[in-house]
Amino acid sequence: MRRKEGAHLHRHRHISNRHLSDKYYYAGEHETATDIRLTQYNQETLHTSEIKKDTASFKKLADPNKVNWFQVSGLTDSDTITRIVKDFGLHNLDAKDILTPQHVVKIEEYDSHILIILNSCYYDANMEMHSEHISLLVTGNVVITFTESNNPVFATTMKSLESDMLNLRKKGSGLLLAFLLNTIIANLVESVSKVEEMLEDIEETLLDIKNDQGNMGSMIQQRRHEYLIIRKNSQPLKEQFAKLLRNENGIITQDMLPVYTDLSDQLLFVIQTTESCREIISSLVDLYISNNDLRMNAIMKRLTIVSTLFIPLTFLVGVWGMNFKLMPELDWKYGYGIAWGVMLLTGLLTWIYMRRKDWF
Description:
Layout: H1 2-16, E1 35-41, E2 46-51, E3 67-73, H2 78-87, H3 92-99, E4 106-109, E5 113-123, E6 129-139, E7 142-147, H4 155-163, H5 173-207, H6 216-245, H7 257-320, H8 335-356
Parallel strand pairs: 3-7
Antiparallel strand pairs: 1-2, 1-3, 4-5, 5-6, 6-7
């Protein structure tokens, strides 16, 4: 009953977020409580602290002499999410985009803001794929990341900050945005590479018809489902990514363009690999159907051979089973043994004939 009520509430919120309103709700399935952390850094210092949700003004917490990274994990507190968005100068509708996991992938540029709505996907330790809605907001020296869960999605970015990779702590918010996007795109690259690898393994199994192929159909369907998730998350992002390469609000400076160009190349790799996966999946479906037909033909061939062997035996049994009075062999002393000998010899000759014709 609770699950049904939760599903009904989720559908209600999803539908309500599609209409214009003064207030929007989180329309996803995660139940992670909203938590906020603030990381502030410059060339000399790096400090992370917890931020209370009832803070009067999040904008006033930003240090103008440092880059400020707000990490918001959990979107269940829609009021807090909306307050953060409005506090940094965006519209109520932007909060709706952040709170709606089913929203299309997009990159919006404003005079002094960049808002990126996208989805990340990754495999867990059990090789199950998960997809997570992520939003990135950049304004001046402030970067805000919104994630549905408290999974350490950006743990590698934090390590890069600690090691000051590529002089990250000496640069502005635009380079931090690049590292955050790199984490998401790297997950896409890793996921699509694993899907392609698993599809190739399935292909090797299907090419050897002697292998057990009982669950190959469900495995192909699973890989197809994962491929569609990756394609849905990556293709719109590649189409939107060009906006960042011609950014004119000063957040992404000229010296950062090589990094963003590399990210664009990685996205192109994901798109090309998904196309390769699509072709492999199509060929695997044909191969799977063909193998099923071959196995069915083999079964029918065996049944036909068995039937053919017994056709003359059935004829003989039918003749001797007739109730005519004048059947002298019925009164022979060795009639029973002779009948068995005739039937065995007939079956053997039939088998030899089919073998010589190479019918099996």
